[in-house]
Amino acid sequence: MFRDIRKKKNQISTEAAEQLLREARRGVLAVNGREGYPYAIPINYYYDREAQKIYFHGARAGHKAEAIRACDKVCFTVYGSETIREEAWAPYLRSVVVFGRCRLLEQSPETMALLKRFAMKYYPDEALADQAILEGGRAVRMCEIEIEHLSGKEVQER
Q: What is the pTM of this model?
């Protein structure tokens, strides 16, 4: 159902792809937007390796939420881990592409716990994360991508 990476020599292991998902701070979420136009937006996210899910938050209303309600199929891309090797002048860059189903989560104690795990990725300490959640946590909606397919590759930028 999902295409394999065409250039097998560029493919990275699942473990390396998951490491990039854990370490990167932002990714690009692509949804099916209005009138068939794709809608892609950079987001902060949290990757739960055990559950094989990606979590992010957003407003309760808007283009992103509307598009997810209309079609739950999404694509999520992360890139980074740029390295320069001695034998080559141009950097190598890794990327991960995830295909999955996204759902908008209703507010509950479980989603507030997810929001806390998400916040701990971005805030320098727990007190600041707790304060941010106290001030704005009720206004956001957590979203969950259930991963159906994940692949990663490394290419040289030249």
A: 0.90
Q: Which amino acid is at 52?
A: Q
Distance CA 21, CA 68 (A): 22
At 80-125, the pLDDT tens digits run 877 777 776 778 889 999 999 999 999 899 999 999 999 999 999 9
Torsion angle in degrees (nearest 10) through CA of 22, 25, 30, 34 = 140
Instruction: For residue 101, give the 3-state DSSP assignment.
Output: strand
Is 141 in a helix, a strand, or coil?
A: strand
Let me know: does 152 contact 10? Beta carbons within 8 Å.
Answer: no
Residue 108 CB-half CA count within 13 A? 6
Task: Say which amino acid occupies 136.
Answer: G
Q: Other C-beta atoms within 10 Å of 33: how many?
A: 17
Residue type, 39: Y
